[in-house]
Amino acid sequence: MSNPQAVTDHLMVELRDVNKWYGEFHVLKNINLQVKQGEKIVICGPSGSGKSTMIRCINRLEEHQKGDIIVNDVPLTEDLKNIELVRKDVGMVFQHFNLFPHLTVLENCVLAPIWVKKLPRKEAEKQAMELLERVKIPDQALKYPGQLSGGQQQRVAIARSLCMNPDVMLFDEPTSALDPEMIKEVLDVMVELAHEGMTMLCVTHEMGFAKTVADRVIFMDGGQIVEENEPHEFFENPQHERTQLFLSQILQH
Amino acid sequence: MSSDMSNSGHKPDGGSAQPKAPPANQPKFWNDPKKRSLLFQTLLLAVLGYFFYSVVDNTLTNLEQRGITTGFDFLTQEAGFGIAMSLIEYTEASSYGATFFVGLLNTVLIAAMGIIAATILGFLIGIARLSDNWLISKISAVYIEIFRNIPLLLQIFFWYFAVLRTLPHPRQSIEFFSSFLNNRGLIVPAPVAEDGFGIVIFGFFAALVGSWFMSRWAKKRQEDTGQQFPIFWASVGLILGVPLLLFLVSGMPMVLEHPELKGFNFRGGITVIPELIALWLALSIYTAAFIAETVRAGILAVSHGQTEAASALGLPKAKTLRFIVIPQALRVIIPPLTSQYLNLTKNSSLATAIGYPDLVNVFAGTTLNQTGQAIEVIAMTMAVYLTLSLVTSMFMNWYNARIQLTER
């Protein structure tokens, strides 16, 4: 039996010399990154360093202007067909959950499977209920997002993404909008997901999470990847001055 | 404290061990909010009561002195004047009651036509205003700024005097699809049903029922197999196709009565008077500008995160609009849209300015002048507008309540 945690050689996400500008502002400068199937990457850095922009380029919520992004062997270009293919494979969880407030939790989860993957509603609902059970809120299925707590909403958002059976999950600061006591319930779900072998790219400052699950930690500053290392080395022995300063500031308290 | 206790002791019903002693710091009655508000409300009610009593009393006394009889008997009297356009049978010999209904129907007609056209135009322009295409978005911006900033009355005059009245005489009519456009209005062929047309109407209703069953079947099939069915276009095809097919099969049991030029005017066909066209154009174009802004605000109110989440799930743009953006935008759009519908209905009374025979024109105008029953006529007219508006807003409130978010 294969170990689900095993990292294979298949390249899931590849960024080659990716550059992006907002008008005059150069947000991403020559980003190179390879993520293998099953790898878990944690991305940190000061605000405005381009970390969110980078992962938002991977499912084309943002357009890059130079370089190549290849997801699961599909190159991201102007071609709408390719964008559709990539988005089917890539799930995303946002800082502010972005659940659809006019739909129930269950409807949030089955909308895309029914209309994008053309699943029968019965099957989609069955799968959604299984995933809601996995994030431990099956009893909230018929409620509306506005009736849930922040932590519950974020767990629904994770389940909603998983309903599309993605190969890669992107997390854009999933716990920054949560009250302290709700952070744990979301992180627990993410750790479990990591143990099941999901390929993950997480923008987060939860250093405990990084130490537990990450294969690599990436530090970004000024639109560049400054440092990249496995977590133990990264925290114990940061090479760059900028990284040392950043770590000293976030670990001070 | 001690004074309060002794006070309560003096009351005849109070014992020495009074269980419900008044609170120690009971305020003076003019400082007690409850008693104070009771006092003011009683005073206000008394003043209002006296006001209405004196108005009614005054009016009755005045009417009596001038020898004017009150009551609604005049409604059965012969009106003695013609009306340029009526949806029901009406002649000069008809009663004032008939005049009322002619005016009412004409008002309802222009309001309904205006609401439909303004809604379609307003939604199109509101969405165009948000287009990524520079030209389209600027054209709709210019449209909105021009038409909502010019007084409506002026726009009615523009369409009536500057556009429709300058059209050629009937002899030089502009002809298209066997219809004629001239300064007396638009004359179109009148459809006249022959024997056997009933089957076409039956087919139409059968198709309506059929498409309802079809949508249920499509939903069931999706639930079981996941296969999608283009229910919207299939229903459109069914509802248009079935009656058309029956019409052709049954030997086209309908003839068009073509208008013909006889002397200086047309005979036959249906004449749409220029006053109706001018009023309809002005009301729809003016109100559409406001609806467009409402629609734009509604769509912008849906946060960008919603479309991003839909994109991240792989939903295409059209489905994102249909399932995510429009349902949420409608919550914001409906209440101000209701106000626009009410405005349009009430603004239709400007018809009087160009002589479109609406309720205000034929009833609160001509009828009032001829009978002098000012109180009854104005009260009836006001009641009509009040009823129309209340019915509209009741319907819209019901719809709004249906689509509101559940929170907590």
UniProtKB/TrEMBL annotation, chain A:
One GO term describing the cellular component: plasma membrane
The keyword Transport is assigned to this record: yes
Keyword Nucleotide-binding on entry: yes
SUPFAM superfamilies, A to Z: P-loop containing nucleoside triphosphate hydrolases
Primary localization: membrane
Superkingdom assignment: Bacteria
Signal peptide: none
Alphabetical list of SMART domains matching this protein: AAA
Keywords: Amino-acid transport, ATP-binding, Nucleotide-binding, Transport
Domain ABC transporter: 13-247
Recorded family membership: Belongs to the ABC transporter superfamily.
Protein name, entry field: Amino acid ABC transporter ATP-binding protein
Taxonomic lineage: Bacteria, Pseudomonadati, Pseudomonadota, Gammaproteobacteria, Oceanospirillales
